[in-house]
Design a protein that fits this description.
Blueprint lengths: L2 H17 L6 E5 L23 H13 L4 E5 L7 E2 L2 E2 H11 L3 E6 L12 E5 L4 H8 L3 H9 L6 E7 L7 H10 L3 E8 L13 H16 L11 H6 L9 E5 L2 E4 L16 H9 L4 H14 L1
Parallel strand pairs: 1-2, 1-9, 2-5, 5-6, 6-7, 7-8
Antiparallel strand pairs: 3-4, 9-10
Helix pairs in contact: 2-3, 6-7
């Protein structure tokens, strides 16, 4: 991370903590909800299957930038399916950097060739070892491994949603992240139980066991992007929600924190590690502040 970028984020954090501000710093643009997979834990794919126009996405990016957002995510559906008027996902990433966003990340299922050297991080969904990943996402594991091997930059971060199917594969994903040169880190979430996938949610005891494994792997040198100091809050769902410093825009609609805010009762069952980390950070929790500084300076 450039020193000037660090200073910007530090200034934002101090102002937010001291004056209890609610302005956003992290924004996500949903470029499409179209997806080539039908994952067992997903509730937001192919609802409209619309690929949003380039001009609209650029307008949404400018709107987020004007709101003060400087960390931008492109998300889907499957982001690599986005293509419009001769423009590709890579064009959006380059445009975002030129617009002034300081960190630009992309979320993908990894089933398409990965050529995004301009992105800070590519959060690639890997949901366990071959057997458990394929049980959730179909027969895609080997194709994803090949795409990682052939990626044009080492900016990949595994992105695992832990649920009842893959709860015993946390260690496997950490080990795989350590072994692959194009993978920088691994980031975990707990399954957030939308009504149609509530049976995949973990109990408090299962969350605690997963957190013990993640912490152990991190102490052993696994490149874990999450903050261990946030784990007690995640286990107990005791962190404040929603996160006002994060916004999502989809087809012109802005949602605070994420699309799931519109589902009654879901915020209280949130499994997103970054929501806990950001809300606790901006509450001024010192352990979170110091661990986030150490982690972000290492991996971004």
């Amino acid at each position: 991370m450039k020193f000037s970028h660090f200073l910007h984020f530090a200034k934002f954090g101090i102002k937010t903590i001291l004056f209890r501000k609610k302005e956003p710093i992290l924004g996500t643009v949903i470029v499409t909800d179209k997806c080539n997979l039908k994952c067992k834990h997903c509730s937001v794919n192919n609802i409209t299957a619309v690929v949003h126009p380039y001009d609209q996405i650029i307008k949404e990016m400018k709107m987020l930038y004007d709101m003060g957002v400087r960390i931008l995510f492109f998300c889907g559906g499957e982001t690599f399916l986005w293509e419009e008027g001769g423009h590709t996902l890579r064009d959006l990433v380059i445009e975002a950097k030129q617009m002034g966003f300081l960190i630009v990340n992309v979320v993908t299922n990894g089933t398409y060739p990965i050529n995004l050297p301009e992105a800070n991080l590519i959060l690639l969904s890997l949901d366990g070892d071959r057997e458990r990943h394929n049980a959730i996402r179909g027969d895609t594991y080997d194709r994803i491994m090949e795409n990682i091997k052939n990626a044009t930059a080492n900016n990949i971060c595994f992105y695992m949603a832990i649920n009842q199917i893959n709860k015993n594969a946390v260690r496997d994903v950490c080990e795989t992240a350590k072994e692959l040169p194009n993978v920088k880190a691994v980031s975990f979430n707990f399954h957030t139980p939308y009504p149609d996938t509530a049976d995949l949610a973990l109990s408090k005891e299962e969350k605690a066991e997963c957190c013990r494994t993640i912490a152990e792997m991190k102490r052993g040198g696994a490149p874990v992007f999450n903050l261990v100091s946030a784990f007690p809050y995640l286990i107990n769902n005791s962190f404040p929600t929603p996160c006002h410093q994060c916004v999502v825009v989809e087809n012109g609609k802005i949602s605070t924190c994420g699309r799931c805010i519109d589902v009654p009762g879901l915020c209280e069952k949130c499994g997103y590690f970054f929501v806990a980390e950001y809300t606790l950070l901006f509450k001024g929790k010192l352990k979170i502040v110091f661990e986030m500084l150490k982690t972000y300076l290492k991996y971004i």
